[in-house]
Amino acid sequence: MTALQRRAPAFGAIRRWGPARGIGRGMPVLNAVLVVLLSTFVTFGLGALGDANPAAAVLGETATPEDIARMNHEFGLDRPFLEQYATWLGNALTGDLGRSWFTQIPVAESIAQRITVDLSITGLAVLIAVLAGGTAGIGAAVRAGGVFDRTVTAVCAAASTVPAFVVGIGLIVLFSVAVPIFPSGGYVPFEQDPVQWLRLITLPAIALSLDAAADLARQLRTGLVGALRENYVTGAVVRGLPARRVLLRHALRNAAGPAVTVLGLHIPRLIGGAVVTEAVFSLPGLGQLTSEAALKHDVPVIQGALLVTIALVLVSNLLVDLAVARLRGAR
């Protein structure tokens, strides 16, 4: 037995259980930690380096140097930058995002009251994108080259070029003015009136979902067309398996991974787009809170809103990574 043969089992163990496998599994978490540190540092730095000052903002032009120094000490703004950042980040990790300079209301409380609007719109938008984009993509792949396929391709190309706020205005004109089916704006919590809640978020969610649905349909159509030509699909058909089972259990499972990845790339856009959509439909969400805080230079509220948005994007990306890994493992 040669030395290489004696080492072969060891090499096999390294391939199965070695550091590469552990590193590969830990990379998403490590990346998330690095993104959190970098993004929070930039977020806090932008607020600290700005010219906004709580004393000048709250007390106005009549503030004396002694008043400014006293208030800066109360907010900890007279400490070194890195010490301020470490304190802010440590408090943020425990849910304490500070208090508004103007209202003295805890930032976490203000965000909790507003973020349900954004989560409602974004969640329904993702659901619409999956249902509409998935149905269109599967139908186009099954009828590749036909009229339905060409129609889906044309509609998706058009939908991807229209901004969400333009779609929102068009939906208001069509379904709130011309044919008054849905309200044109406002918000009611789910626990207060579930039916009215759904009616109020439907149009914003549709406006927000079109771009994601179009990209999802195109990616799913492309992946399915390729998967349906693979040998394992042909073999399943030859063995007499039902066409629906071949499509859903074999071809779709392999084509869904890239489509889910595309959907994951759209989630940050959906969260950001919800801010613009709020303005069109007069929704009291996180975007409105951030805009009001920016106009007043209420730095703690702006920093807290940005931090929560970053956290939502990271969590959604981790969920997408887990879903893609599960799809790959199920092949």
UniProtKB/TrEMBL annotation:
GO biological process annotation, one example: transmembrane transport
A Pfam family for this UniProt protein?
Answer: BPD_transp_1_N
Annotated transmembrane regions: 29-49, 119-142, 154-177, 301-324
Is the Cell membrane keyword given for this protein?
A: yes
Q: What is its main location?
A: membrane
Record membrane topology? Multi-pass membrane protein
Q: Which residues form the ABC transmembrane type-1 domain?
A: 115-320
Q: Does the keyword Isomerase apply?
A: no
The record ties this protein, via SUPFAM superfamilies, to: MetI-like (SSF161098)
Q: Which GO terms describe its cellular component?
A: plasma membrane
The subcellular localization recorded is: Cell membrane
Q: Which PROSITE patterns match?
A: ABC_TM1 (PS50928)
Q: What keywords would UniProt list here? A: Cell membrane, Membrane, Transmembrane, Transmembrane helix, Transport
Gene3D superfamilies on file: MetI-like
Family under the similarity heading? Belongs to the binding-protein-dependent transport system permease family.
Protein name in the entry: ABC transporter permease
**Which organism is the protein's source?**
Planobispora takensis
Instruction: State the taxonomy lineage.
Output: Bacteria, Bacillati, Actinomycetota, Actinomycetes, Streptosporangiales
